[in-house]
Amino acid sequence: MENTSHNPDQHMFGFRQLATNGRKRIGILIGAGAPVSINVGEEGTWKPLIPNIAGLEKIVFDALSENQREVYNQIKSSFPDSNLEKILSRVRMLTEVVGDGKLFGFTEQDFSNLSEAICNSIREVVAQDLPLGANPYSELVSWINGINRKYAVEIFTTNYDLLFENALERARTPYFDGFSGSKSAFFDPSSISKNDLPPRWVRLWKLHGSIGWESNANGEVIRVPDSKNANMVYPSHIKYDQTQAAPSSSLFERLKNFILEPDTLILSAGFSFADAHISSRLLECMMANPTAALFAFQFNGLADESAAKELALKCPGISVFCSDGAVINGVEAKWRIGTPPTKNWHEIRAEYYKDNKFLLGDFLRLARFLATAGSEISQDAVPPIPQEVGAEIV
């Protein structure tokens, strides 16, 4: 096994052909790492449009009051390997069990206020508009629109932001997110299950909710323009329970049904696969449908992508592409360049492999690779990628 290797040229040649196949049923899974690839900092500095989990935790912590920060730190130090998700989970748990007593000097109402403050900060951080000009979201939409497709592209995302909505609307691309109406759009699960819109309509499924979703007087989730509220599935121990209620239950069912369709291909970017609820659903459906394939593009090396690697080792239909190697057909190996598949392939290779590093784990690079793959998209119409690209994906 020590002599085993994967040739990135071979696999990207095949992937490029799949990406331009208009008869392929394609889904895209986008996680929190995707907006990290967009730099909005001043020249020479890197500032992601929306930070990763570590960056988000710092912003949330700084926005808390002095007393809330003190309790936050006490909770954080009380158990190992803590992060924002685990701390919010613990805060919500304490809200439910503290009763009439106190813990860390906080009452039930104090813990409830802390939970609300954390959630409000998360919402404020992710409420960003897509920058003007070239960006990976717009280029992904250009790739979607540039090919005459038999089946609609379906985007599944765990993110609460409206970046895909921004990109689709700027490109005048019709899309459906499960809601119908204008002033107080209502969720229509029957439209999701029937899936009978034209192929040119992109399907956008927000698995964990979205900015702009809120509950009306009847407890139903509606989508309201410029809403300041949010019915989002925040990262915590109650995430699984929340996803069993509408509309999340219908959206997760759509993910399942999509994977079980014949000859499907899912591309994932910015997704760590640490969400056990989604990962278990993906694995279950992929094992049930041997004609389906999942290509997971991960930013880090194999050693740091344990969750994705574990899935790929269990299911040969899941391929994980990391910076230093890959798991393909259940085989884990490092990259090794081989014979180019075509005469001028070295020019294409520069888009995904440089300095012994595979680059498509960066959402910016992946979107650019897809955009330039379509024969209908002019190379001259796409500006070059800046020298400094990428950011750590969590």
Keywords, separated by commas or semicolons:
2 domains, SIR2 family protein, 37% helix, globular, Rossmann fold, single chain, ten-stranded mixed beta sheet, alpha/beta
Shape: globular
CATH topology of the largest domain: Rossmann fold
Q: What is the N-to-C succession of helices and strands?
A: EHEHHHHHEHEEEHEEEHHEHEHEEEHEEH
End-to-end distance: 30 Å
Stretches where pLDDT is under 50 for at least 5 consecutive residues are 375-394
Per DSSP E runs of 2 or more residues, the count of β-strands stands at: 16
DSSP strand content? 5-15%
Using only C-alpha atoms, the radius of gyration works out to: 21 Å
Summed up, the helix count is 14
Structural class given helices, strands, pairing? Answer: alpha/beta
What is the topology, as strand order, of the major beta sheet? 1-14-13-12-11-10-2-3-7-4
Query: Which bin fits the share of residues in helices?
Result: 25-40%
Largest sheet: 10 strands, mixed
> Taking all residues together, what is the mean pLDDT?
88
> How many domain regions?
2
The CATH architecture of the largest domain is 3-Layer(aba) Sandwich
- Provide the CATH top-level class of the largest domain: Alpha Beta
> CATH H level of the largest domain: which superfamily?
TPP-binding domain
Describe, in plain words, how this protein is organized in 3D:
This protein is an alpha/beta fold. The protein folds into two domains: 5-42 and 133-381, 3-Layer(aba) Sandwich (Rossmann fold); 53-126. 37% of the residues lie in helices and 15% in strands. The chain is built from 14 helices and 16 strands. It has helices at 8-19, 53-63, 66-77, 84-97, 108-126, 136-145, 163-170, 189-194, 239-242, 248-260, 276-288, 306-314, 345-349, 363-373, and strands at 5-6, 25-30, 154-157, 175-176, 179-180, 185-187, 202-206, 213-215, 221-223, 264-269, 293-297, 318-321, 325-328, 331-335, 353-354, 357-358. The protein has a ten-stranded mixed sheet with strand order 1-14-13-12-11-10-2-3-7-4, sandwiched between helices. A four-stranded antiparallel sheet has the order 5-6-9-8, with no helix packed on it. The protein has a two-stranded antiparallel sheet with strand order 15-16. The chain is globular.
